Amino acid sequence: MESCAVLLYHSSFSPAAGLAAKGRALAESLGGRLGILAPEDIEEAGKIPADVLYTLSTGTAALLPESAAALLQQSAAATGAKVVLLAATRTGNEIAARTAEALDAGCISECLSLCIDGGKLQAKRDIYGGIAIGCFVSDTPVTVCTIANGALDEAVAGQPAAREEMVFTAPPVAKEIVGSVPVEKSINLAKAKHIVSFGRGLAKREDMTMVEKLAGAFGAEIGCSRPIAEELKWLSSEHQVGITGALVKPDLYLALGISGQVQHFAGMKGSKIIVAVNSNKQAPIFQFADYGIVGDIYKVVPALLDAMQA
Amino acid sequence: MHIVVCVKHVLDSTEIRVDKKTGDLVLRGIPAKINDYDKNAIEEAVKIKKACGGEISLVSIGPREAVKTLKSALAMGADNAYLLSLPPRQALDTRQTALVLGRMIKKLGSVDMVLCGEVSEDGYNSQTGARLAQRLGLPQVSYVTKLTCDGTGYEAQRTLEDVVETVKGDFPVVFTVNSGINVPHLPTAIQILKVRMNRIQEWKPGDIGLEDQALSASAVKMLSYEIPTQERKNIILDGPAEEVAGKLWECLQKEAV
């Protein structure tokens, strides 16, 4: 394989279009070329501006994460790549960690930004769920990174890369995918402009009608904190806002009876205006609210509905 | 069936805050506890043990204080626990973590299944399960939201961003479970107190064939951190509900959101 300094991995489960700008900048710092490895979805991969697009001589195949890691290990060694980049999708993170282990390499997941300093890769990422941003350095000859969803760049058009076929035989993996069903999504919180979200402050499931009324008045989608979706199961997980749920950035985020733990904060900190209603004056959510009301949601919500109708 | 569950003793992330004067994170004196996501892994192991029989071993790395976490994990229904004890405040990176956990699991002998939570609430690296699987040379099913097992194999549902996959295979295997997979039955204080300390074995690096030095060379180090500025108005409205609701609505109209 021809050499490259930075290798992007592209598949339908971890698309690489948003990695190209960061990959290019790193490749320039390292004085090398930018390559894309695409075992499948080659047409999409071909639209990503890079110097070389590696495909498989055996044709296209959706690889299991185990095989993808074996392919990346082999390719990183053959191209002399110093940095391997993937999108921080669930599958992307899994492949990245496996590849790093196979290469005995450092791995930094969910990166917000990256650079080369003194020949070493440095990356910034959230720590403790986003209270702080840590700057990390990798000391291994090759480093595997995944780029956080919110830090992906706009896809840019460019010269199609030269194609090179490579030989790879996927190793046998003792598991089999026997079914694949699209997740039925009724809402897309990540794109919502207004979100009314609630947490443990809501006492009963039936009281969700009050939340629904307020959401209706704002033309908002309904979100919730982790316990509501995972423990009480009052709403499906697609309504859950937080680091393991949806990362949202609406114009208005109205948090009802949500204490605002780190895991929730990380999911909604990108909101333009944050309003919090909570009966506990000490609730952390007030620290990062634009407007905070210390009060009972059962009194404040009906009053707010009245005010909006007045 | 021998099931191993990886358990992490973590700082309670909900208690971490920023010192307003110095701008530093306050990490000292923060209570530590079991990683929330690992409770789901233990709960699932207990369910599988009930259905298929077998034994549950817990493995953990941390300061001696992590015994507290292991006691609560044992009280959830696990059988034995093994702690690789480190000096206080020594933290391992993900490569070292996989190295140590891999050695610990090898020392336990024949293992059918390794369960991990999908992420730890301190680092949020999401690497340990996959690194460990690679190190042990095992297949992995990640983000598992439903699991059924018999004596020789499993069928697992894994939930990705846009698709739910069903995966089948034989043991041995590594699973990382999503927190939606079950609702953990948390032990009572009395149940935790009743856990006998002789069910927890403490190992030193030498016990798994590692020199102390092997744990000083990290692949990834944190150089520094910064506190992102959240420019929020922090306007607190106080008073009777009608009054504050009215004020809030006025403000929101001005914000034009």
Can you tell me about this structure?
The complex is a heterodimer of chains A (310) and B (257). Chain A has helices spanning 20-30, 42-46, 65-79, 90-102, 208-218, 226-231, 262-268, 297-309, and strands at residues 6-9, 34-37, 52-56, 83-87, 106-117, 120-127, 132-138, 143-147, 162-166, 175-182, 194-198, 221-224, 252-256, 273-278, 291-294. Chain A is α/β, with parallel strands linked by helices. Chain A folds into two domains: 6-166, 3-Layer(aba) Sandwich (Rossmann fold); 189-309, 3-Layer(aba) Sandwich (Rossmann fold). In chain A, the strands form two sheets. A nine-stranded mixed beta sheet of chain A has the order 7-6-5-8-4-1-2-3-9, with helices on both faces. Chain A has a five-stranded parallel beta sheet with strand order 12-11-13-14-15. The longest helix of chain A is centred in the first third of the chain and has 15 residues, at 65-79. Chain A is elongated. Chain B is of the alpha/beta class and 257 residues long. Chain B has six helices and 15 strands. In chain B, the strands form three sheets. Chain B has a nine-stranded mixed beta sheet, sandwiched between helices. Chain B has a two-stranded antiparallel sheet with strand order 2-5. The termini of chain B are far apart. The model of chain B has no long low-confidence stretch (mean pLDDT 94). The interface between A and B is large, with 92 and 80 residues. β7 (132-138) of chain A pairs antiparallel with β14 of chain B.
Please provide a brief summary of the model.
The complex is a heterodimer of chains A (310) and B (257). Chain A is of the alpha/beta class and 310 residues long. Chain A has 8 helices and 15 strands.
Quickly list its features.
heterodimer; A: 310 residues; alpha/beta; Rossmann fold; 2 domains; 9-stranded mixed β-sheet; 5-stranded parallel β-sheet; 28% strand; B: 257 residues; two-stranded antiparallel ribbon; 6 helices; 15 strands; 30% strand; globular
